[in-house]
Design a protein that fits this description.
CATH class of one domain: Alpha Beta
Number of strands: 55
Strand content: 15-25%
Structural class: alpha/beta
Main location: membrane
Membrane topology: Single-pass type I membrane protein
Distance between the termini: 22 Å
Pfam families: LRR_1 (PF00560), LRR_6 (PF13516), LRR_8 (PF13855), LRRNT_2 (PF08263)
Radius of gyration: 38 Å
Keywords: Cell membrane, Glycoprotein, Leucine-rich repeat, Membrane, Receptor, Repeat, Signal, Transmembrane, Transmembrane helix
CATH topology of one domain: Leucine-rich repeat, LRR (right-handed beta-alpha superhelix)
Low-confidence stretches: 1-24, 43-65, 683-705, 852-903, 905-913
Number of helices: 12
CATH architecture of one domain: Alpha-Beta Horseshoe
Subcellular location: Cell membrane
């Protein structure tokens, strides 16, 4: 106790601290002795309990299998509040049917208990056909000792309740995947500090989402987490650096379709295999699989990999292999080889085709070259999958014996983006369902004889070749046909929809034949494809009217592209499809009114009707479309004013609007601009579809990515937006008859990249609020009647590349600095009142402001003098008083305060050490 007393500081002005500390020490000693006695008693009771348990096996077994009554009641209550739905997987069955009050709940299907206490510690109700909502008062949350909870592959909906997290704090494994959960994942999930595995994947993207704060807390607090699976959880605002906090424990991470952006930290992927593979190895006689994908392996592909006697699978995808494939002396019986996505160069050695047991061969996306002879390829008779795509210097050779070669198991063949110059007819004897020859150099045509050999085909891609004829459809099972960018001529009917074909396909899903030289009308046979999802006949020379029968596609149609043809007449009223997302009828000769039935296309995102002869007013009724992002009505005959009474939620997702080259009148619609939320802030990803990547209803792309371009005129040039469409924001109201002043509200569109109001009758000043549009790259206000000065705030637009203010009535000096120093004379021509660089007209200097001598008469100067005098006196007086106080010790109360505060601070610092 004396040691304790000496270590504690004495407070100034007291004389009895030592006595108090001794008394406190004695109390602490008595408390410690009492705790020791209690601990001994507990140990004795525990020893007695264990002894009794060991001496009575029946009692132990009884407690190991009997769950607690209150927990059984909680489980039964949960069963009664959750309904059973259709089992959507073949392996699903209602596990809760075994939950009967007559039996011990520890014996119920999907329930596991602690062997000693009988507490329910695990619930596995995955694939149990359950349907309902986990409400905050769910009895399931009464199982406080629950460690494992698996509710995957059911139909639970609503939000993930924070009560699940607040009460089930003992969880180590939580799986809520493949349900219908939505809304924001509660940040309280970070309180589950014992979690080892968390799976929230595939809950109806993009309805379930993480925000930045919630994920940062999770990554920081879940220090035991080894498995994190959050596929299709929407998290566009989550910084990728947040994942660095998980690297200490994480073993498995899956982030598919999470909308993450930015550079992902490489430290998350620890310990990658780096460098070349060894030239030779000893042993490994029993090695069956080598999986080294997604590493940094360099060098060539050593031959010893293909001589290991037990090897069955080899996967070296996504590495940095650059050397050739070595000659193989004694090929083994490997059945799967995948070397895709490397930079392997040189030819495929002939010995490679001695791997006669190969069933899957993928060498795509490399730099392979040379010619593959058909007789060598024919040795691989067991092939089921062959993918040599994206090897631009690789080609095939054929011979007169090709028809005798047999590939009885071949299902998938891809030679896209190679250098094939002749159609490989030796595949005719296979049972292919997937055949891809995209982007090659195949001339001529596909004969009827060749097409008859493809009876099993489901997918056929011959786009971007030099085909001139394609006589008929192959078989009757074809779902996807891509013939884009060839040299096909004549009517579609005679090109490939040959009526003499006895079994034309009836369930076509994707038909793409754009960028050819087709003529004639749309054949009625197309209208029989009632399940068609994508129809692209664009950029041909087709003519006639658009048939009303295209409305038969209402069951599945997502995209219709008829742009750049010679169609005339009216747009059919049959376009009223719920699933239609992209409608492109631009650059034709269509006339009349816009069909009001378009307002029923509730999924419409892109509507392009530019360069037609449509005569109508502005289609304000399109404001009811909740997903509309691109609206292009350029170069038609629209007339009249734009209504200014539009509800606040309408057009909120609009990113591109082009109304130029029409006859619209009246003032610019202020409320319309106020509604354009997607141009004001980053709309959350749950409000975005993918206009540029049309997908089927199962969410998968059909074969290659299909991009549908949109042309806009910006930066004085017409550009074609393809992949950048989803991030581009643009507004063009030029070449109309708009009048009045430019609304200040336009300055709120801070994400706008291109703005064109040229060639109208606009008056008044340029709003200074334009300086807020910091992403603006092109601004054209030319050929109006704008007046006043150029706002200096425009110098804030550091991304501005093109500025055109010519042919107005602007006056005063031209601002300088940043981007304004890069613009030439033509940006300001026709404004006689402007002066300053880059114009030759100089601005008159401003007269100097009258100044009093040394500002002696200035009230401000007097105030400053007084302030400085006070400041100087205060410093001198303060230093003098400080010296007197601390040398004389008086006044004693002031010294005591300073001494006590100093002593307390020192004490806190010592304790912190």
């Amino acid at each position: 106790m004396e040691t304790i007393e000496r270590r504690l500081p004495r407070a100034a002005g007291t004389n009895c601290e030592g006595t108090d500390l001794v008394a406190a020490g004695e109390n602490i000693g008595r408390l410690i002795r009492m705790l020791c006695q209690i601990l001994c008693l507990l140990l004795a009771l525990l020893h007695f309990h264990v002894g009794c348990s060991l001496s009575s096996p029946s009692s132990f077994l009884h407690s190991a299998h009997l769950c607690l009554p209150e927990q059984k009641a909680a489980l039964l209550e949960f069963k009664n509040t959750i309904s059973l739905d259709h089992c959507w997987k073949s392996a699903s069955y209602p596990k809760t049917n075994s939950w009967n009050e007559s039996f011990d709940c520890c014996s119920w299907d999907g329930v596991s208990c602690h062997k000693v206490t009988g507490h329910v510690i695990g619930i596995d109700l995955s694939q149990s056909c359950l349907n309902g909502t986990l409400h905050a008062n769910s009895s399931l949350f009464h199982l406080r000792g629950l460690q494992r909870l698996n509710l995957a592959y059911n139909n639970f909906n609503g939000s993930i309740s924070s009560e699940l997290i607040n009460q089930l704090v003992s969880l180590t494994h939580l799986n809520l995947s493949s349900n219908l959960f939505s809304d924001l994942i509660p940040c309280e999930i970070s309180l589950l500090s014992k979690l080892v595995s968390l799976d929230l994947s595939y809950n109806g993207y993009p309805d379930l989402r993480f925000d930045s704060q919630g994920f940062v807390m999770l990554a920081r607090n879940l220090t035991e987490l080894r498995n994190l699976i959050i596929d299709s959880v929407d998290m566009p605002d989550v910084a990728s650096l947040s994942f660095l906090n998980l690297t200490s424990s994480l073993e498995h991470l899956s982030l598919r379709d999470c909308q993450l952006h930015g550079e992902f930290p490489s430290d998350v992927f620890r310990l990658p295999y780096d460098g070349p593979l060894p030239n030779h190895v000893n042993g490994l006689q029993l090695l069956e699989a080598v999986w080294l994908s997604n590493n940094l392996i360099s060098g060539g592909v050593p031959s010893w990999l293909f001589t290991l006697p037990s090897l069955q699978e080899l996967d070296l995808t996504y590495n940095k292999l650059t050397g050739p494939i070595e000659q193989i002396q004694k090929p083994n019986s490997v059945w799967k080889v995948d070397l895709s996505f490397n930079d392997i160069h040189g030819p495929i050695p002939s010995s490679f085709f001695g791997l006669v047991d190969l069933e899957t061969l993928r060498l795509s996306s490399n730099n392979l070259s040379g010619v593959i002879k058909s007789n060598l390829l024919a040795k691989l008779k067991k092939l089921g999958v062959l993918d040599l795509s994206n090897n631009s210097l690789l080609s095939l050779s054929t011979s007169g014996n090709d028809v005798n070669y047999s590939f009885p198991y071949l299902v998938t063949v891809s030679f896209s983006s190679c250098s094939i110059r002749q159609f490989p007819s030796f595949f005719r004897t296979s049972k292919m369902s997937y055949f891809d020859l995209f982007n090659n150099k195949i001339p001529g045509g596909i004969s009827k004889w060749e097409a008859e050999g493809w009876e099993e085909l489901v997918y056929l891609n011959l786009s971007y070749n030099f085909l001139t004829t394609f006589e008929q459809f192959p078989g009757k099972n074809l779902l996807i046909l891509d013939l884009q960018s060839n040299l096909l001529q004549g009517p579609i009917l005679s090109t490939c929809l040959n009526l003499q074909n006895p079994n034309p396909p009836q369930d076509m899903r994707v038909f793409l034949i754009s960028k050819n030289n087709l003529t004639g009308n749309i054949p009625p046979l197309i209208c029989n494809w009632s399940w068609l999802e994508h129809l692209d006949l664009s950029r041909n020379r087709l003519s006639g009217i658009i048939p009303n029968c295209l409305g038969n596609f209402s069951q599945a149609l997502e995209l219709m592209n008829l742009e750049m043809n010679n169609f005339y007449g009216k747009i059919p009223n049959s376009f009223a499809h719920d699933l239609l997302r992209n409608l492109l009828l631009n650059d034709n000769q269509l006339e009349g009114l816009l069909p009001r039935t378009l307002a029923n296309c509730s999924s419409l995102e892109l509507l392009n009707l530019r360069n037609n002869k449509l005569t109508d007013t502005f289609p304000h009724w399109l404001a009811s479309l909740p997903w509309l992002r691109v609206l292009i009505l350029r170069s038609n005959r629209l007339h009249g004013p734009m209504p200014n009474s539009i509800a606040s939620s309408n057009f909120s997702l609009l990113q591109i609007i082009d109304l130029s080259h029409n006859e619209l009148t009246g003032p610019l619609p202020t409320k319309f601009f106020q509604n354009l939320r997607a141009m004001k802030d980053h709309v959350s990803e749950d409000k975005r579809h993918s206009t540029e990547l049309p997908r089927s209803r199962d969410g998968k792309l059909h074969g290659h990515d299909y991009y549908y371009p949109v042309n806009v005129t910006t930066k004085r040039f017409e550009i074609e937006l393809v992949k950048t469409l989803i991030i581009f924001t643009f507004m063009d109201f030029s070449n109309n008859l708009f009048c009045g002043e430019i609304p200040e509200e336009l300055g709120e569109l801070i994400l706008l990249q291109g703005l064109n109001f040229s060639n109208n009758n606009l008056t008044g000043p340029i709003p200074p609020s334009f300086g807020n549009m910091v992403w603006l790259e092109s601004l054209d206000l030319s050929s109006n009647k704008l007046s006043g000065r150029i706002p200096s705030q425009l110098t804030n637009l550091t991304f501005l590349e093109v500025l055109n203010l010519s042919q107005n009535d602007l006056v005063g000096p031209i601002p300088h600095g940043k981007q304004f120093d890069t613009f030439e004379n033509d940006s300001y021509s026709g404004n006689l009142g402007l002066c300053g660089l880059p114009l030759s007209k100089q601005c008159e200097p401003k007269p100097p402001m009258p100044m009093l001598k040394e500002d002696e008469g200035s009230e401000t100067a007097f105030i400053w003098k007084v302030a400085m005098m006070g400041y100087g006196c205060g410093v001198v007086l303060g230093l003098s008083m400080g010296y007197i106080v601390f040398t004389t010790g008086r006044p004693w109360w002031f010294v005591r305060i300073i001494e006590r505060d100093w002593q307390n601070n020192v004490t806190k610092w010592i304790r912190s050490i």
